[in-house]
Automatic annotation (TrEMBL), chain A:
Protein name in the entry: Asp23/Gls24 family envelope stress response protein
Residue span of region Disordered: 1-53
Biased composition (Low complexity): 16-42
From TrEMBL, chain B:
InterPro entries: Asp23
Similarity comment: Belongs to the asp23 family.
Provenance organism: Nonomuraea rubra
Name listed for the protein in its UniProt record: Putative alkaline shock family protein YloU
Region Disordered: start-end pairs: 1-22
Length: 144, 117
């Protein structure tokens, strides 16, 4: 396990700088202050370090959306798979120190277990040792 | 006779792709089963037949699934043969797409009519 970049929790706020060092194809880099650069390995979620965790969940969401066979993220049963971020709600990803949960709406272009495995592989370095539970909440059927 | 074997290593962590569960929602199985049933030529129409409070044709329990379908079949067609083909096709499709094993598939033929394709 590589040590993450030593960004102490509660670093100097508004230290500027984009939070994502290698932004995936997501829509714009998140503008959370105190950017915690998530390097490979589990980002240690310090006490009250909201921005670090938020960045991590957003990265997980972007990576999952980039996988083949994933149409969009979903809220899961009763909308339980979600993360509350400052000023918004990120549906489809919830992560704590024990496990990462991702809920997706898939397409039928290939078998669903393969899609789930690819999602797991895509977020493996962010999840570290934690298990990644993928829930296929719905599918999109062509011609309906 | 006893044999001594060297101490066994503990099982390694599974590869990242395998670490964690894959859950499949009931409605996913329901949709796949309905699409698969409609692919059988003699089937005119498919409705999921769930319990009154959940109109979904599928129920997932672990790696097994129960599916219930109402189908309407073209007339005249050999119903037992159509049912057998339907059963085989739906079970194969659900297994291929979701990896779930259909342990029970209830087919109710609710209507005949329409022309043979």
């Amino acid at each position: 396990m590589t040590a993450a970049a030593p960004t102490g929790p509660g670093g100097p706020p508004n230290s500027g700088g984009p939070a994502t060092s290698r932004g995936p194809t997501g829509p714009g880099s998140p503008t959370s202050p105190g950017g915690a650069a998530v390097s490979g390995g589990a980002a240690s979620v310090g006490g009250g370090a909201g921005s670090g965790a938020a960045t991590e969940e957003r990265l997980i969401a972007d990576r999952a959306l980039g996988c083949r066979g994933v149409a969009r993220l979903s809220g899961g049963p009763f909308g339980t798979v979600a993360t509350y971020l400052p000023g918004e709600r990120l549906t489809g990803v919830s992560a704590d120190e024990r496990a990462v949960e991702i809920a997706i709406v898939a397409t039928l272009e290939r078998p669903l277990p393969q899609t789930a495995d690819e999602v797991r592989g895509a977020v493996a370095d962010l999840a570290g040792d934690r298990p990644v539970h993928v829930r296929i909440d719905d599918i999109i059927v062509e011609g309906s | 006779m006893t044999m001594t074997v060297p101490a066994q290593r503990r099982a390694p962590l599974p590869s990242p792709e395998r670490r964690g569960r894959t859950e499949i929602a009931d409605r996913v199985v329901s949709k796949i089963a309905c699409v698969a049933a409609a692919e059988v030529p003699e089937v005119r129409d498919v409705q999921p037949r769930g319990l009154p409070w959940t109109p979904s044709a599928g129920e997932v329990h672990g790696d097994q699934a129960v599916v219930r379908l109402n189908v309407s079949v073209a007339y005249p067609s050999p119903l037992p043969a159509v049912a057998a083909r339907l059963r085989e096709h739906v079970i194969r499709r659900v297994a291929a797409q979701t990896g779930l094993h259909v342990t029970r598939l209830d087919i109710t033929m609710t209507d005949v009519g329409g022309d043979l394709p």
